[in-house]
């Protein structure tokens, strides 16, 4: 058992780690409003991409599934976690506003769902890159394999299971702790389970950094660059065959789009993953930007996709048939 003095010291320490210094009232309001804007932009963008992808009958079903999965993960983050950040900055406090049994359950679920969704996004980006690589390098071989849709569904299930297993320790280490004045703080602390908790914590976050950020994103970029080089080297062959040329041209545009989404993801989340390993040595002024840039990816990613995909933008416009029906009412 941890005595009251140790618990109080632990609580104060975590409070300082979570929020280095109190924001001014205007700064807190500004940050809360910024998160509110991110929530709105993210929901509109991701729902738009999901709608366009489902409308596009020409798109490979597996690609549609992967794109929908990425956007669904962003929507989950937006609805489950970002409101917490907005409230945190509006109150200018790291305190957990819900206590009791419900507060303890939400304290474990909200951060866990957040991190599982992030990991699922990274793995889906990798799966998408592998799918495009196989489609370009081995188009005939893939045509006679198992159903693409069925294969894609199996991959998506494996992605979420892997993401859950990788992030499951959060369910154990995240707890609701009492603070003075009948307040609570929700924080992850490995000290509850391990004596050498600092070493275990650093090992765990380093493994997450390497296995679920560096390796997937480096491999993703490598696969896309290999595809681009392959298409450029065989451009003369494709030019003599119009049908294949048009297919390869479309593939090249698709690859550039997915590469841009992957790069934007890596830029937004890089500071967050590296910051987990060396969190206590990260300057206070950097900690806000660490989480802000990461969470902003939910709002950036869908709009990057739409900006580079004019076909999907056209699918979002009301058709003439729809407009005629509306005016005839």
UniProtKB/TrEMBL annotation:
<dbReference type="GO" id="GO:0004930">
    <property type="term" value="F:G protein-coupled receptor activity"/>
</dbReference>
<feature type="domain" description="G-protein coupled receptors family 1 profile">
    <location>
        <begin position="45"/>
        <end position="305"/>
    </location>
</feature>
<feature type="transmembrane region" description="Helical">
    <location>
        <begin position="94"/>
        <end position="114"/>
    </location>
</feature>
<feature type="transmembrane region" description="Helical">
    <location>
        <begin position="254"/>
        <end position="275"/>
    </location>
</feature>
<keyword id="KW-0297">G-protein coupled receptor</keyword>
<protein>
    <submittedName>
        <fullName>QRFP-like peptide receptor</fullName>
    </submittedName>
</protein>
<feature type="transmembrane region" description="Helical">
    <location>
        <begin position="63"/>
        <end position="82"/>
    </location>
</feature>
<dbReference type="InterPro" id="IPR000276">
    <property type="entry name" value="GPCR_Rhodpsn"/>
</dbReference>
<keyword id="KW-0472">Membrane</keyword>
<feature type="transmembrane region" description="Helical">
    <location>
        <begin position="287"/>
        <end position="308"/>
    </location>
</feature>
<feature type="transmembrane region" description="Helical">
    <location>
        <begin position="203"/>
        <end position="233"/>
    </location>
</feature>
<feature type="transmembrane region" description="Helical">
    <location>
        <begin position="120"/>
        <end position="140"/>
    </location>
</feature>
<keyword id="KW-0807">Transducer</keyword>
<feature type="transmembrane region" description="Helical">
    <location>
        <begin position="152"/>
        <end position="170"/>
    </location>
</feature>
<comment type="similarity">
    <text>Belongs to the G-protein coupled receptor 1 family.</text>
</comment>
<dbReference type="InterPro" id="IPR017452">
    <property type="entry name" value="GPCR_Rhodpsn_7TM"/>
</dbReference>
<keyword id="KW-0675">Receptor</keyword>
<keyword id="KW-0812">Transmembrane</keyword>
<dbReference type="GO" id="GO:0005886">
    <property type="term" value="C:plasma membrane"/>
</dbReference>
<dbReference type="Pfam" id="PF00001">
    <property type="entry name" value="7tm_1"/>
</dbReference>
<feature type="transmembrane region" description="Helical">
    <location>
        <begin position="32"/>
        <end position="51"/>
    </location>
</feature>
<keyword id="KW-1133">Transmembrane helix</keyword>
């Amino acid at each position: 058992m941890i005595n009251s003095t140790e618990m109080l010291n632990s609580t104060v320490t975590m409070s300082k780690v979570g929020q280095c210094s109190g924001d001014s009232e205007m700064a807190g309001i500004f940050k809360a409003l910024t998160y509110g804007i991110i929530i709105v932009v993210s929901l509109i963008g991701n729902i738009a991409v999901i709608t366009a992808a489902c409308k596009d009958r020409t798109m490979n079903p597996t690609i549609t599934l992967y794109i929908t999965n990425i956007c669904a993960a962003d929507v989950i983050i937006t609805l489950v976690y970002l409101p917490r950040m907005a409230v945190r900055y509006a109150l200018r406090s790291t305190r957990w506003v819900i206590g009791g049994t419900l507060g303890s359950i939400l304290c474990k679920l909200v951060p866990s769902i957040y991190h599982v969704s992030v990991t699922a996004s990274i793995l889906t980006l990798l799966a998408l890159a592998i799918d495009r690589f196989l489609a370009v390098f081995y188009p005939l071989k893939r045509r006679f394999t198992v159903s693409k849709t069925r294969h894609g569904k199996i991959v998506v299930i494996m992605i979420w299971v892997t993401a859950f297993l990788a992030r499951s320790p959060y369910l154990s280490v995240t707890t609701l702790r009492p603070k003075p004045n009948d307040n609570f703080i929700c924080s992850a602390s490995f000290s509850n389970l391990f004596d050498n908790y600092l070493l275990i914590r650093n090992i765990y976050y380093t493994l997450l950094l390497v296995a679920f950020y560096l390796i997937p994103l480096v491999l993703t970029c490598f696969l896309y660059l290999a595809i681009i080089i392959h298409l450029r080297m065989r451009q003369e062959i494709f030019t003599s065959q119009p049908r294949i040329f048009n297919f390869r041209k479309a593939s090249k545009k698709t690859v550039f789009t997915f590469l841009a989404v992957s790069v934007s993801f890596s830029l937004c989340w890089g500071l967050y993953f590296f910051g987990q390993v060396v969190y206590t040595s990260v300057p206070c002024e950097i900690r806000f930007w660490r989480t802000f840039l990461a969470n902003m990816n939910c709002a950036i990613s869908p709009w990057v996709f739409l900006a580079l995909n004019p076909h999907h933008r056209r699918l979002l416009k009301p058709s003439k048939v729809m407009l005629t029906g509306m005016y005839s009412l």
